[in-house]
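Reopening: structure tokens for the tryptophan complex, inputs below.
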Amino acid sequence: MSETAKASKRILSGMQPTGTSGLHIGNLEGALRNWVRLQDESTLYCCIVDWHSLTTRYADTQQLWEACLILAAEYIAAGIDPKRSMVFIQSQVKEHAELHLLLSMITPLGWLERVPTFKEKRELISDKGEGDESISYGLLGYPCLQSADILLYRPLGVPVGKDQAAHLELSREICRRFNHLYGPVFPEPKSIISEVTAVVPGLDGRKMSKSYGNAIYLSDSADVVADKVKNAFTTTTKLRKTDPGVPETCVVCQLRRVYDPEGYSTSWDEDRAGIRGCMQSKKELTEILNTALEPIRQRRAELLSDKGELENILKDGADRARETAVETMDLVRKAMGLR
Ligand code: TRP
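Re-run output (same inputs, fresh job):
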């Protein structure tokens, strides 16, 4: 696709820097792989949303910068090309804050209070007995800030998972409300649902999630991966090699399907037929996973070994992202009667 055709197809997505453990393979297969693919047909803005992480983790910010650098290294190691795409930190493009402020004026309180993730977080906090004081104004405004992240680049779409559907719907509502009040500034961002992403089960059979402690991380060494796979859940009724397996409910078989789409079916047949044991499946999976993850691991380590260079990449990404952000803010201010 020509550069000009690509430029008009802007796509934005973002992730929170959640900590120094970085991303797990659920993030990689469920989101990042799709972003990487989108680079061929669109201009991709890959945001690291550090302000969003402050909506709950505001008290301990010691490791925030480090977490941002790790996330940047992981985006790039997974295949985001920082020359073609904008890899940047939200707080380095201040226009996000200005647009957030202006959108907050036109966002009805009720819309924010009804967002399921806000209700969940509120319940979680009150369950922990932390009281109302830890629910901040910023947390309520989380989806409004997310709307600003998105609309700032007037993108065609946003690649999102199911968990973000409510947030994106709210962004579209805010977008319509803005256009209705001040004229058509923003195209309505579409949700881009991908064919390439896979749902990755965690090692205990639940969804892979940092908070469940059931994840395989991009930062895990080959030995750690081997250990985690060794302890993963398989079919509970398959105690001996000759017992029939149920690959549909076996974590090891499911991971094999994600990482060995061509070859997995034979292993599944053997598992069902009771001619292969879980140990063999685990050994093979470990090898397949480590082969797939090793180049990412290496690139990640390389990038993190030169933080100065990584910071330059991020600064360059922010500078290029800002070009579009500044254009949008000119349109927004004019539409709203500001100068
Ligand atoms: N809420 C998103 C998440 O938790 C992160 C996010 C912030 C985001 N701003 C965004 C995602 C803009 C897509 C677009 O995953």
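The chain has two domains: 3-200+306-336, 220-299. Residues 3-200+306-336 form a domain with the Rossmann fold fold (CATH 3.40.50.620). Marking as resolved unless the reporter disagrees.
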